[in-house]
Sequence to fold (368 residues):
Amino acid sequence: MPRTRRSPTTIVQIFAEPLDIPLIEPFAIATGRIDAVRNVLVRIVLTDGSVGLGEAAPFPPSGGETQETALAAVRGMIPLLEGEDAACWRPLAARLTASFEAQAAARAGVEAALLDALTRSWDIPLYQFFGGAVAHVETDITIPLVAPAHTTELARAHAARGATTLKLKVGTDVDDDADRVLAAVEGAPDCDLILDGNQGYMPTEALDLLVALAAEDVRPILFEQPVHRHDLEGLRFVTERAGVPVAADESVHTAADALRIARLGAASVINIKLAKSGIAEALDIAAVCRAAHLELMVGTMIESRLGIAASVHLIAGLGGFRYVDLDSPMLLSADPFEGGYEQDGMVYALERDRAGLGVSPREPEADG
Ligand SMILES: [Mg+2]
Fold:
């Protein structure tokens, strides 16, 4: 791309710094656990002074990225972006993918900062830039792998806070998992349940869990990634027999992955996460899903308000997301940002008159 003229949206500076946030309690899933959030804050400045923010959320147990690799990747992207026009964000996203394909969380943070800066410069909310389908979304809330008694406690607390859907991490031992799911039902009998196996089961084990739950009259509304991400035949085996919708999560990072799932009939729902694919690729995945009549889900790594705001703007802009799992700010013990959305119970509402993502760093409390 020849750099001919300097537009108001030319990228002049890119910064990356660690974004460390404590968790309320450790977060464990079938593939591992984390005790604190170690993300990366990306800041992009344009010629006209517009500043965009993005959050890169590497999740070591499932993504293969860490804070260290994400910081290095974002810094490595700087020479590919400086002096380029943020208005050409699609070719810029493709350029980042060409060199940093495996660093999807880092790319997602940079793409979010780019689009935030651009839509601030253009003075429109990001969700309207994406299509403006709706202005609010309702999220579920996740209960990680914890003991049954604590599961009941958490389920009760989340329901009291307005949750209508609980997502339960499973994928360990079928009997233990069934006990924990039933413990959640005890705490929140009126909530819908999503199960997330995080690749932990063999296909027959996944079906065993559903049979055990059916014996207690418990039927989840969705079963996410019961088997290993590369076992698409196993995923199809479960999908064909589960009797409930089955979602592919870790199996899908690209639009080509989604197309493969659709052709095989391996799942009926695709979980899109910006940290798995970046933003431009997430749009392509959504388009494949619509064409193939796969239902849309959105998920998240452990992200603060900043990263969640990017996902909320994207899905509100596109519309049509049936399953929304954007709860992670509620698992954090601090919120370093403000704005982005207004939260009421489990509903995030967007504002028409805030440009970009609308997120800013929270001002430190004034002393005395
Ligand atoms: Mg998942």
Notes: The domain at 11-123 is CATH 3.30.390.10 (Enolase-like; domain 1).
